[in-house]
Known about the structure:
The protein is α/β, with parallel strands linked by helices. The chain has helices at about 5-20, 50, 55-60, 70, 90-100, 110-125, 160-170, 190-195, 195-200, 210-220, 235-240, 250-255, and strands spanning about 80-85, 105-110, 130-135, 145-150, 170-185, 210, 225-235, 260-270. It has a single domain (about 5-270), classed as Rossmann fold, CATH 3.40.50.
Amino acid sequence: MADNDIKTAVQNKYGEAARQVAAGGTACCGGASGLSICDPITRNLYDESQKSGLPAEAVAASLGCGNPTALAALRPGEIVLDLGSGGGIDVLLSARRVAPGGKAYGLDMADEMLSLARENQRKAGVENVEFLRGEIENIPLPQDFVDVVISNCVINLSADKDRVLREAFRVLKPGGRFAVSDVVVRGPVPPAIRKSIELWVGCVAGSMDESDYRAKLAAAGFAEIEIEPTRVYGIEDARQFLAGQGIDVDAIAPAVEGKFASAFIRARKPTAVAKT
């Protein structure tokens, strides 16, 4: 699967999600859009206290697999970067927690999502936020700039995950934290799932094995790596993932049951690089 094919598919799918939310629909399965990138991964991620005060469009456009703002211990005065910020829900939530004195950046490559996020920022009346256009493989921020990197089911969408993790390491300050939600795989995955672009866009086919994730984080320079599964998906969840993909779910059930999980992934950039 060519990198450009994956990038185009992701950009088109999430751009369409943003347009439908802006038109009053939802990006979730079973909603007005019928997009196949929501349940069961994206449901019930935010409690009512977090959603309070946020524009309905920010919540409707949430297409993540976790709640990285609950994972990251954000403090006033810190700078936060959300990789693949979408409609902006995690950026807006982060901005609340780093105020006063802090700032939250959102990075996304889809113009439609950026427009939606900026409109959500305006509606929410949050000033300590900036949305940037760009790719998570080439973060448009200086080295040693942010205190925390968050992301919500986006890193697995990249065809060059090593580069994403190296970029996240680069922009973090020494001692900075990496705190993301992502989908991970436990063991081999049927080839029919891996080769489907639609499922890649849906946060499933591009997911890394837990051990691979750890190895790539370590290779990028991270330390204190932790992976904590939060939702392990069974065959009925897989049936929703694979609906309309031409895949015989019952036939592959033994190879899918319990293989996919949403997880909190934590790591830290060392405060100093060891001298050789």
